[in-house]
Specification:
The protein has 140 residues and is an alpha+beta fold. It has one domain (3-139): 2-Layer Sandwich (Alpha-Beta Plaits), CATH 3.30.70. The protein is built from four helices and six strands; from the N terminus they run ββαβαββαβα. A six-stranded antiparallel β-sheet has the order 1-2-4-5-3-6, with helices on one face. A hairpin with a 2-residue loop joins β1 and β2. The longest helix is centred in the middle third of the chain and has 21 residues, at 58-78. The two termini are 19 Å apart. The mean pLDDT is 95.
Length: 140
């Protein structure tokens, strides 16, 4: 599934007393599609500069979008992985994927994130029911 032609939707919510946003791919709401990808991949990147709500702006926002696009391009073309979307919380951009190939994704992220000039980390966990993102899909 190519994210460049996908349909996304946005949500605003509050987390830890600060405004937060989520951009989530609507095309993945179907449980049959979700069942093909059993591992969640959450990548956290801390922006260098941010506004009073902890959200990146201007060049920093553009940089984080470019990083996300590079990950999408590689993971969706070279592995069995789908891009779910991202959240923007206080001083944190969290990019979300689901995959069939957690080992390949981990190898790529260990390399790729070492080139990102921002504090970052990632977690890959088994989540066949998509519980980590179910609250978003219940709202669509």
């Amino acid at each position: 599934m190519n994210s460049n032609t996908a349909t996304y939707t946005g949500f605003e919510f509050e987390a830890d007393g600060f405004p937060a946003m989520a951009i989530i791919k609507k095309d993945l709401k179907d449980k049959k599609l979700q069942s093909n990808y059993s591992s969640s991949v959450f990548i956290e990147i801390v922006p260098d500069t941010f506004n009073e709500f902890g959200h990146p702006e201007g060049n920093e926002y553009d940089y984080l979008i470019e990083v996300e696009k590079k990950m999408m391009d590689y993971l969706e073309e070279q592995t069995a992985t789908v891009h779910v979307g991202h959240t923007t919380l206080y001083r944190k951009r969290e990019i979300i994927f689901y995959t069939k190939e957690p080992e390949k994704v981990e190898g790529f992220l260990q390399y790729f994130l070492s080139t990102v000039e921002r504090e970052n980390n990632f977690e890959i966990e088994t989540d066949a029911e998509w519980e980590s993102v179910s609250a978003f899909y219940e709202l669509i």
